[in-house]
Design a protein that fits this description.
Number of helices: 5
Radius of gyration: 12 Å
Largest sheet: none
Amino acid sequence: MALAAIPWTANEAANRLLAEDGNALLIGFALDQQVTVQKAFEGPWTLRERLGHLDPARIAAMDADAFAAVC
């Protein structure tokens, strides 16, 4: 049984994304080392909103300055 959401943020859309997209969950865990839990696990949703995707290959192919500007 899959979870509908992982309730780690106040943002319901971010919570659903964490449950639906393994890459979002991994990004959240990476960010969790730098900021608060809620901010870390809302980070993937924010990135997807800004980039339009969370495709690791496309993110890795981005120019570092362009990615920094998105962040």
